[in-house]
Amino acid sequence: MVVPAQAPAIVHHRLRVVAKRQPVAKPILPIYITPEGHKKVKDEFEQLWKVERPRVTHEVETAAAHGDRSENAEYQYGKRRLREIDRRLKFLSDRLERMKIVHPESQRDNGTRIGFGAWVVVEDEDGGKHTYRVIGPDETDADRGLISMDSPMGRALMGREPDDEITVQRPRGPASFVILSVHYGDQPKV
Fold it and tell me: Pick from 36, 43, 116, 148: most CB atoms within 10 A?
């Protein structure tokens, strides 16, 4: 049987070409952090990498030398702890790569406008005064008044000035605050 020269073209037109959709890559956004916060994250990474991981690796090697690994609880615990350390190291390494150090003093050019690293004194609806510092998500500590710029309160404060009134949506309902003062540098005395 002779196949006409156009046969491959006809066959080609009959085939359906299904294009695979590539997932849209999210842009890698920087993580803003103060110099103190960056040092803390870097110190944790160094502690895990240079102290904790070698210690646990040695413990696993010692436990493995005792024989049957399937019934050796020390060996199994050590391996699990090693995986936890490696997972945390990977997380911290990825975070450190994305971190952009912002010196709060450089934000003073904003005048009294609230920027990253600012200490802010606010008054709540009941007349209570609270001091917050607007910082990156890796340094938050609510007990010390360190709030993330991505938190509801942090988003409401960014770009505002003294005497502005803000409303923050909280789980227990909205709350209003008046901004009393903005400081850069050391924590203000209230």
Answer: 116
